[in-house]
Amino acid sequence: MKRGGIVWSWLWMIVGILYFFLPLLATFMFSLKAIKGIYSFKSYENLFADPKFLTSFSSSVIWAILTILLGIIIFVPTAYWVRLKVPQLRPIVELLSLIPFVVPAIVYVFGLVRTYSHPPLLIVNSPGLLVAGYTVLSMPYMYRAIDTGLRAIDVQTLTEAAQSLGAGWGTILFKVIFPNIRVAILSGAFLSFAIVLGEYTLAQYLAKPAFGPYIGLLIQNKAYEPAAATIISFALTWAAMGILELVGRGKQVQLVGGH
Amino acid sequence: MTHLTLSNVSKQYSGTTVVKDFDLDVKKGEFVSFLGPSGCGKTTTLRMIAGFEIPSAGRVTLDDVDITDKLPNQRNVGMVFQAYALFPNMTVAQNIGFGLRIRKESESAIKERVSEMLALINLEEKGNSYPFQLSGGQQQRVALARALANRPQVLLLDEPLSALDAKIRVSLRAEIRSIQKKLGITAIFVTHDQEEALSISDRIVVMYEGKIEQVGTPFEVYNFPNTRFVANFVGSLNTADAEVVDPVKGLLSMDGFHFESAEGTKDRKKGDKIKIAIRPERFGFASEQKKANVVDSTIENITFLGSVVRIQVKIGNTKFNMDTFNNPFLELPKIGAMEQVTCSREAVLVLDE
């Protein structure tokens, strides 16, 4: 590469880093100013001392785990079946998976409340509805991640090979398909985790304890703690992404090396 | 004794017939190849035996049991795919033992069978390797071992050598044949490569546009093709328009040059237009004694193909290829030279239009 090209590459990379990291750095610096005149972790101490922090955070983690499980149960067989049996429907299913990007969360939550607040579907207070709602919100990430994973393997031939060896659908899914799209599932799972952890609207309007509404409440009443909570949320999300990168790297070598 | 039977099997996809009235009896331990160009229905037929496709009409029976409507995992049929289809998340040993685990065989039995299969394909030391650590040829041998581990009643091979390079293809096809003979297993092999089919099969089913054109041994299919398609598809062939001169003697005229055919043309009349076919290797330069089917020709081109030298000769207005074995001590004719060429009466085939 020419010298000019390298300079431009570095310049754009630095601009990009500054664009993404400066606000974060500012938030972090602000979160350290809880005691006037000195930098301290006081806001973090306050946060960890607040029982609502742990309640809301642990609730969100539980919602996230349940969302991921429900997402895997629904989207892996769906994406697999669409690829195997009705590939002509793939564009339609892909389009459907994008609906959460088009419909605002506030519209969606009012739809849920309206639909599920009358008998015989009076489940508006059930945590299940919140998890189902989160599953729909995370659908674009989960479905597409799984679909991309399935694209990387020869689904039809692997399925037929397993069938010819006597395997039924359950064995094929759990022994052949799941292990070979593990990284894709993990990728979708971490994205879903990040979405659920920061989500505000659904939990707020379905009146369930969650980390998003907690941060919202903090913003209204405190100055430095919301910044600390935001940094914690970022750190957890990045930790999740880091794990994904580590897990993905090892697996990728194995799949690529086969050709 | 008939082992696998396909009776009047047809397959249609939204009104298009891809396999039509397919009838075949395969004996136990026989190696049968389905040979034909792309889209002739050979893979569809194989997939109907495997259970991946359900016939629109007709029945498939295996050891007198009707398996037409059985699911693929309920038929005891092993399959080897073109793309190997090894499970990337499993080691070679786990791949081979996959079917045995589904059958819930004991761990010791699985271990023993896997070792047996690894020895069969000469990959004893690769049991703990993953598929990506193997070459294409090794992966296909593992796929073969995996298909055989379950002791299937029939082994189906769907163009298993197509993804391999030429040298490995030749060695692996010999290995497949040797293993098949050793185990005495019935095998159906799909290929579009005539050399592969000719070299490996007990019988060849030549297919074209969903129908069987001819079933026969490699010798029969090559030397006595039933139809013009088979003659053209299997091996190289010179074809030319001709006219019947004497139907009783089988005397034919091509561009004014006379040929006699042993096949005879008794069912035709003098002056009938026909098509004659002669294999390149059935031509030779005429010796002094030779009298029948000796014609004058001009040497048009000479191509060296290694073990064979292909000489293009012009007889009248028609060009023919003539193949002779390469002999470094034999002088080849010069391009443009006039030479007399000949072929036996038996070499002149009269084809159906």
Could you give a short description of this structure?
Chain A is mainly alpha-helical. Chain A has 14 helices and no strands. By secondary structure, chain B is an alpha+beta fold.
Radius of gyration of chain A: 22 Å
Task: Indicate the mean pLDDT of chain A.
Answer: 87
- Beta-strand residue percentage of chain A: under 5%
Beta strand count of chain B? 20
CATH class of the largest domain in chain A: Mainly Alpha
Assembly type of the chains comes to heterodimer
Catalogue the unreliable spans of chain A: 252-259
Helical region count of chain B?
Answer: 8
Order of helices and strands of chain B: EEEHEEEHHHEHEHEEHHEEEEEEEEEE
* Count of alpha/pi helices of chain A: 14
Characterize the main sheet of chain A.
Answer: none
The gross shape of chain A turns out to be globular
Explain this structure.
The complex is a heterodimer of chains A (259) and B (353). Helix content of chain A is 80%, strand content 0%. With 259 residues, chain A is mainly α. Chain A has 2 domains: 1-31; 41-258, MetI-like fold. Chain A is globular. In chain A, 34% of the residues are buried. By secondary structure, chain B is of the alpha+beta class. Chain B has 8 helices and 20 strands. In chain B, the strands form 4 sheets. A 6-stranded mixed β-sheet of chain B has the order 6-7-8-3-9-10, sandwiched between helices. In chain B, strands 13-12-11-14-20 form a 5-stranded antiparallel β-sheet. A 5-stranded antiparallel β-sheet of chain B has the order 15-19-16-17-18, with no helix packed on it. In chain B, a hairpin with a 3-residue loop joins strand 16 and strand 17 (308-315). The model of chain B has no long low-confidence stretch (mean pLDDT 91).
